[in-house]
TrEMBL record:
The active site is at C257 (nucleophile), H341, E343. Keywords: Amino-acid biosynthesis, Arginine biosynthesis, ATP-binding, Glutamine amidotransferase, Ligase, Nucleotide-binding, Pyrimidine biosynthesis. Small subunit of the glutamine-dependent carbamoyl phosphate synthetase (CPSase). CPSase catalyzes the formation of carbamoyl phosphate from the ammonia moiety of glutamine, carbonate, and phosphate donated by ATP, constituting the first step of 2 biosynthetic pathways, one leading to arginine and/or urea and the other to pyrimidine nucleotides. The small subunit (glutamine amidotransferase) binds and cleaves glutamine to supply the large subunit with the substrate ammonia. One of its GO terms (molecular function) is ATP binding. This is Carbamoyl phosphate synthase small chain. Pfam families: CPSase_sm_chain, GATase. Its EC number is 6.3.5.5. Residues 1-181 are annotated as: CPSase. It catalyses: hydrogencarbonate + L-glutamine + 2 ATP + H2O = carbamoyl phosphate + L-glutamate + 2 ADP + phosphate + 2 H(+); L-glutamine + H2O = L-glutamate + NH4(+). One of its GO terms (biological process) is L-arginine biosynthetic process.
Length: 362
């Protein structure tokens, strides 16, 4: 443990104690979840980001092998107010040990509430974690580090070749042996739980890399094209958007999170970067068709720009806090997508039935 600092792009500095390596840089975002840190850290959508947990005590139930959304930690670093070091149930690994084995640092002791308020008021931004006396070197790293809108984060977390019936880690269901549906899933950094939810509904999954071609999935026996979650700016995925456009009206298309944003672009709309995004398990969303409101898990820094959506696109869901678009439907193109995470992991399962909604008309 060493004295260390977090310096934000705007020059603001916070002090703490470092566990692990220094001179790491990434976009600093805050997450309002009280629990679920193992899933958060292994969620590929957090690739390239330094995650600040707003809840003051993190790690009190350790880490279990079942509580992960990919094969490894994807977040760049973790910032907490206090790291739990007490007893744990048998078979659990401490969060500190888990992060150390993954070669990812924890910065402890920062006033995370103050940091969160700063990010809320000034926006998510790049930051660097450095040791005492190393500020000059840290400044060099921070000054040249690209913005998240300039980084290819997806190639680091997505498959690079077609993968049939991907096996998940222990604790998830196995691929169905006699599937009733077949999904071509474009992997931009998909979470295990999304695949698991498809498997639970007897839907076979074939993963395609982000560089997929429309001809790879059309007229190949697939019942739907599914666009996954993932990190970074959807506007960078111009090739993928063009291939999605070729699939419109030819196959049912469903999307979650980044997949929702890519469908926004493919339908002719635009996406914009949010000031600090939605990250946490307590985001209220209203279904504009039924009028019902529910609580969702979310993790995104970009959103659909509603004023650019074509007239035939229906705003299906809205965030009850800021009225932003949380889901769209295009009947003309057989498209449905949501910005939030119906699989949760972590978070509430209020809208896990979205998967049933996605599949029921196929």
């Amino acid at each position: 443990m060493q004295k260390a600092y977090l310096k934000l792009k705007d020059g603001t500095i916070f002090s703490g104690i470092l566990h692990g390596k220094a001179n790491v840089c990434g976009e600093v975002v805050f997450n309002t979840s009280m629990t679920g840190y193992p899933e958060i850290l292994t969620d590929p959508s957090y690739n390239g980001q330094i995650v600040v947990m707003t809840y003051p005590l993190i790690g009190n139930y350790g880490v279990d092998i079942y509580e992960k959304e990919s094969s490894s930690i994807k977040a760049t670093a973790l910032i907490v107010k206090k790291l739990y070091r007490g007893p744990l149930p048998e078979g659990k690994t401490s969060l500190e040990e888990y992060m150390s084995k993954g070669d990812k640092p924890i910065l402890e002791g920062i006033d995370t509430r103050a940091l969160t308020l700063h990010l809320r008021d000034n926006g998510s931004q790049n930051g660097v974690i450095y040791l005492e006396g190393m500020e000059a070197e840290a400044d060099k790293i921070l000054s040249t580090f690209p913005k998240i809108t300039e980084r290819d984060l997806i190639s680091e977390v997505a498959v690079d070749k077609v993968t049939q019936s991907p096996e998940l880690s222990e604790g998830f269901v196995a691929p169905p042996t006699n599937p009733t549906l077949k999904a071509a899933v474009v992997d931009y950094g998909i979470k295990y739980s999304i695949i698991d939810d498809l498997y639970q509904r007897n839907c076979a999954v074939t993963l395609f890399p982000p560089t997929f071609k429309a001809e790879d999935v059309l007229d190949k026996g697939y019942d739907l094209l599914f666009l996954s979650n993932g990190p970074g700016d959807p506007a960078l995925l111009t090739q993928s958007v063009e291939e999605i456009k070729k699939c419109l009206k030819k196959i049912p298309i469903r999307g979650i999170c980044l997949g929702h944003q890519l469908l926004t672009l493919a339908l002719g709309g635009k996406t914009v970067k949010m000031d600090f995004g939605h990250h946490g398990g307590n985001q209220p969303v209203k279904d504009m068709i039924t009028g019902k409101t529910f609580v969702t898990s979310q993790n995104h820094g970009f959103m659909s720009d509603e004023k650019t959506l074509p007239s035939e696109v229906l705003v299906w869901m809205r965030n009850a806090n800021d009225n932003s678009v949380e889901g769209i439907i295009s009947k003309e193109n057989n498209v449905k997508s949501v910005q939030f995470h119906p699989e949760a992991s972590p978070g509430p399962h209020d809208k896990n039935d979205i998967f049933d909604e996605f599949l029921k008309e196929l």
